[in-house]
Specification:
Helix content of chain B: 25-40%
Strand content of chain B: 15-25%
Strand order of the largest sheet of chain B: 6-7-8-3-9
Helix content of chain A: over 70%
Strand content of chain A: under 5%
Number of strands of chain A: 0
Number of strands of chain B: 9
Number of domains of chain B: 1
Structural class of chain A: mainly alpha
Structural class of chain B: alpha/beta
Shape of chain A: globular
Largest sheet of chain B: 5 strands, parallel
Radius of gyration of chain B: 17 Å
Radius of gyration of chain A: 19 Å
Oligomer: heterodimer
Order of helices and strands of chain B: EEEHEEHEHHHHEHEHE
Order of helices and strands of chain A: HHHHHHHHHHH
Number of helices of chain B: 8
Number of helices of chain A: 11
CATH class of chain B: Alpha Beta
Largest sheet of chain A: none
CATH topology of chain B: Rossmann fold
Distance between the termini of chain B: 23 Å
Number of domains of chain A: 1
Chain lengths: 265, 223
């Protein structure tokens, strides 16, 4: 089932060849911007970066690579669902025996696969072009953070797609995710830079815990004992958000079936 | 498999902001159909498509019961047991080939890639669709050939309940004959419901035809 979705999305993506190539180039261009910002400000360690034991460029590099992957879940569910609506294929897809859980698992499988490819490009560029030193990394701890964060962001993405199912366009959750996760979650700079009142808001966002734990595991080799509070926060988000998002999505599909809006865009 | 529909009601809610009135598309429709082909006629807006979408499990009814094979059939069960061919071909991935579309939708219905491909080739031949057309991108097919792909998708499932909404739309004479044969064959094992605005085609496809008007199927009402 998931393979069928992946094949479908790969073939559709491949049919837009220029977009495919430009997407890969944009990733590298994005990295170059932060590389030169890092060079501009030299190797001096800002006090807010000290806990992470990394200069600005290594910090933002790993945060972007990490956030790029986990953000796939947050953004792609709503995007894919909207695409199915506008193509007219959502009703046809949901007229089959496919249940909600399998539909959600398959809907963005290609996006995650492509994000994995992008992550590999990031990793290779980091090692061979930008010569990043990641020798201190605690990869098992980073992997655990990765899994918990990806699941949490996928749940946020599913919640976001509920708005698409109900209202088609106009998605307040996507708006928040797009505009505030990067700003308040420590992706481009540590949250310690934020004023106190914004730092309080950042504590409500899962991205804050995800990025901090990942950065500590990758740059300082922090183990589970060091990042246990961040892991606990991510687990709580997962336990609440995953079942809630799947349940709400099933409710919105049911509502669309009753209102007859499954085929609308 | 016997299909028994009693008092089926489907109301599409009105829009609050534009103060559009709710639309009562099915107003207590009753219908019984056994294995074989049953035709369903009726004017535009009479409720044919809504009835089919409800029987396919795409829409949830607001009232009434649907029994299939003597058991109550909720939308989930209907989606497993029914195959629906919509009147509109805008339900395919236009940038994928016809064969890839059939492979994808076949997978959703539990067909292996080999089964989907074999079924596509076999049914394409019956409907006068060439192998080259199967490999063509969907948006480069003629409207009639798009309709054939939509029919192949529905027939491939070998579902106990087959719902064909305006299946002759856009087909040439030879393809119509091929489709009539396929419908007759499907009717040997499945309960097949067919709609058409052509009385000739409807009577050629089905020995028994019913008429739906204002969301109701009058008892014994022939088309």
């Amino acid at each position: 089932m998931i393979a069928a979705f992946i094949r479908r999305d790969f073939l559709a993506e491949r049919s837009y060849r220029l977009s495919f190539a430009l997407g890969a180039l944009a990733t590298l261009g994005n990295l170059a911007v932060f590389y030169f910002i890092g060079k501009l400000f030299g190797g001096a360690l800002a006090p807010q970066l000290e806990p992470f034991g990394a200069g600005y460029f290594p910090y933002v590099f790993t945060a972007l690579a990490f956030f790029g992957y986990i953000g796939t879940g947050a953004g792609s569910y709503a995007g894919q669902l909207r695409l199915e609506q506008t193509q007219g294929t959502l009703e046809a897809t949901l007229s089959t025996p496919l249940d909600t859980v399998r539909f959600l698992a398959a809907l963005t499988a290609w996006n995650f696969l492509f994000a994995t490819f992008e992550l590999s490009v990031y990793a290779l560029a980091g090692i061979f072009i930008f010569k990043l030193d990641l020798s201190a990394a605690n990869w098992p701890a980073a992997g655990l953070v990765f899994l918990l964060s990806a699941a949490c962001f996928a749940a946020l993405g599913i919640l976001s797609s509920c708005f698409v199912m109900l209202f088609k366009r106009g998605n307040p959750l996507a708006w928040i995710l797009n505009n505030f996760e990067g700003l308040l979650g420590g992706v481009y700079f540590p949250v310690a830079v934020l004023p106190a009142w914004l730092a309080v808001i950042s504590k409500l966002l899962p991205v804050t815990y995800a990025v901090r734990a990942f950065q500590l595991a990758v740059h300082t080799g922090a183990g589970l004992s060091v990042i246990k509070h961040d892991l606990l926060a991510l687990m709580i988000f997962d336990v609440v958000l995953i079942p809630a998002s799947v349940w709400l999505f099933a409710l919105t599909v049911g509502r669309a079936r009753r209102a007859g809006t499954l085929g609308e865009y | 498999m016997t299909l028994e529909v009693k008092g089926l009601v489907k109301v599409f809610p009105g829009a609050v902001l534009t103060k559009t009135a709710p639309l009562r598309a099915l107003a207590g429709a009753d219908l019984t159909a056994d294995t074989g082909v049953t035709g369903l006629g009726g004017p535009n807006g009479s409720g044919k498509t809504t009835l089919f979408k409800t029987l396919a499990g795409i829409l949830e009814a607001d009232g009434g019961t649907i029994m299939l094979g003597g058991e109550a059939a909720d939308p989930r069960r209907l989606r497993t047991l029914a195959a629906y061919c919509p009147a509109n071909p805008r339900s395919f991935y236009f940038r994928l080939s016809a064969a890839e579309n059939l492979r994808f939708f076949g997978a959703l219905a539990g067909l292996s890639p080999a089964e989907a491909a074999a079924s596509a080739v076999k049914l394409a031949g019956r409907l006068g669709l060439s192998a080259a057309d199967l490999d063509r991108r969907f948006d480069r097919l003629s409207e009639g050939n798009m309709q054939k792909i939509s029919l192949i998708r529905a027939f491939s499932r070998h579902a106990p309940l087959l719902l064909l909404d305006e299946p002759f739309r856009g087909l040439d004479g030879i393809s119509c004959r091929g489709l009539l044969e396929l419908i007759a064959e499907a009717g040997l094992n499945s309960t097949v419901l067919v709609t058409s605005h052509s009385r000739e085609l409807l009577s050629a496809a089905a020995a028994r035809t019913l008429r739906i008007e204002n969301g109701r199927v009058p008892a014994g009402g022939a088309a």
